[in-house]
Substrate-binding periplasmic protein
Amino acid sequence: MVSQLIRHSLLLAGLTSLASLAFAQPLLVALGEHKPPYILQEQRSGIEYELVTTALRDAGYEPQVVYMPNQRAQQALAEGRVDAAISRNGPFVSVPYIAYHNMAITLCERNLSLPTIAALGSHRVTAFHNAQRFLGPEFADMTRNNAGYSEVSPQLILGNLLYSGRTDVVISDLFIFLGLTPQLTLPAGAIRPVCSHALFPPTLYSLSFRDPDARQRFNSAIRKLARGGFYQQLGSRYRLLDRQGRALFSPDTEVRTPDGGQRWTFNNTALRLR
């Protein structure tokens, strides 16, 4: 009798789970294009992809992800072509769920001192496309007065320029730069330790929704994931935990760098914080 009750209970639980999946409401969400480690488009994975899709499923939705540049994603939301999009503003904006960290990145062997944005003015600096529009007035002033400043796209080019010595400093989200490094085609030994310099505040991203109830359900789900250690799980899997075990991409984690920069190195393409 007891075994029959257990079997019936397991069957009921399974049917309930299947029913919840069957009746989950589809939600079309626009995220950014391929940018490891946040979005791994072909693999349908990445830190940001997993955060968003897990939270939406926990909120009772079945996420359907489309990929497009951030500005196009926000336009698609405004035109009603998607239900939610990565955004920093919009009709119904969620709590921030991820932090991007734009930094100055140098070869550690150069021993460059970059205590301020103004210090960039005496070096060759290459940044991601439109960086001068997004990184504040002090950075914009530096770009106008620095004949050695340039911008490139796609961001994979930044690594080639830095490791080949054709620029002194690159400006990029730190983890995108590190995530793209294994994809570079460079001579053996060309990839050396890099140092990151935290000159800019983090960029916090949210989801903007068409429906306020969906925003509220997402907020509840992402907060529950944070309390339950999901950020730390992802940080461990993607090797992006600080020395205190905090996820470096969490909006709640303050990322600082020491004088002279924070050293990062690769060992058989595995990222190491030094």
